[in-house]
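Aim 2 progress update. The chain analyzed this quarter is reproduced below.
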Amino acid sequence: MNRSIASTEEKEWRPVLLRVPNGYKRVREVWIPALIHRWTLTTLGLLVLFLCLQFLIPARLVIGGLGAVGRPSVAVGIMLAFLWVLSAVRAHRLPAGTQPIRWVIGLYVGLQLLGNVIGFDRLPSAAEASSADRWLIFTAAIAGVALVTADGLSTRLELDRVLLTVVALASVMSIIGVLQFAGIVDITQYIKIPGLHANADLIGISARGDGGFPRVASTANHFIEFGVVLALVLPIALHYALFSPPGRTRVWRWLGVSLVALGIPLSISRSAILTVVVTMGLMAIVWPWRQRYNALVIGVMATAVFHLVNRGVLGTIRSLFTNAENDTSVTDRIARTDYVIDLWSLRPWLGRGAGMVTPEEYILLDNQVYMTLLAGGVVGVAGLVLFFLVPYLMGRSIRLRGKDQETRHLGQALAVSMPAALMASATFDSFSFATFVGVVCIIIGAIGALWRLDGTSPTNEIQLAAPGDRFVATPLAANFRERIGAAWAASRPRNYGRGKFDKKTPNASDGDASGPSTINTDVTPQTLATRRGRRRT
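Predicted structure tokens:
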């Protein structure tokens, strides 16, 4: 016993100068420096960092040697993909339950890897091979963003913060575009970041129409991308404005809606206008008639004010549609169709290789569907459609089965971006623009996160609108038979079906079989009791 105590003391003994005071030992084990503790990176912080790099740094500033895929936001996306894979291979690190977004992203990434193998099998040129490598890097980045958003946000508050960050940064991008349009200052020309250089001249300000109106791109890579991105964010901004609490918060959120909507026509782009029509049209489907009327009035008034402030811009946008047959950007796209069909017929099913169809090697197509058809064939186009279709169906399921009005409305606001983005992809080569793809992947991930946090399942019962719901009407598919029966009963004439009871029948009390009598079907229990009393007397 004494020997064991002595041996323990010998092991613990240290020279006096090397001994650590017990108090300092406790501080060293428990205390964490304040700066390190407060700034520990989380999933929310990494996603906000990704969005800031995506929106605030001009698209053509890249890391040297990587080309267009060298944007700092893409580097963050690669890190997010690595963190998600690291969590996936460790037990119980991903949320339990079904997550359809994982299958969607997994299928899309798998098709790109298959396309890469198919492309290298046909011995591509050096330029095509380099383009394919950059495409795989970009694919990994966007997959990481979508998966981390879907699986990494642990609460509804974190999801709201990510989406509100998207709205805030889109508002800032719109402000930069307004300053460009007004000729005050082009901030993008003064953004210089060490380690980044322009892989091409900044797009700056262009002119369009007979009046030579400025056409701006803000920090985006092109005018079309600028307008389409704002159009995709508009339903989300509108959702948070409609459900904002009274006070200063509501003012700021409606200001965000105004700024996002203001920047869309400044791109002077057909794609942007069509995207707005699709998103707002699909949003109006879930609104009650009163809300549709309010939205129509506000839209008309905002359009009138914009026309008074910027005369001629709306006329130029209108001429983009009415004079499309004389617009070279439209006629050139149509003329390229024969070229696409001829080239596609050579490799119809699996295409020429993912990321290998470039303007330098072929021609500028300005159509993502055409580019996917040539690069991935019919299989690639099917994967592209599923990439947008499955998140849309998930968002619609949240709209039908969400636990409360706000969740159902947010599900619809996220869902409408998917068909709008697919439609826009048929009007320009959308996946060549990182800001567009980054926003789409954040929205796809947000749909997955909302699906998981709300516990949505196709087996859940479709929810009816509560009496106090102002922004979401009862789905048409909810209690369909009962509602049809109630509507039929309400519209049926009041005396419908009473004719057979109104025939003249013998009056038993008079004992005369031929005596006419009319049966009153509106007899009350009190009246029947009175009649029985009379018969007894």
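DSSP finds 20 helices and four strands in the chain. Residues 97 and 440 are 24 Å apart (CA to CA). These observations will guide the mutagenesis experiments scheduled for the next reporting period.
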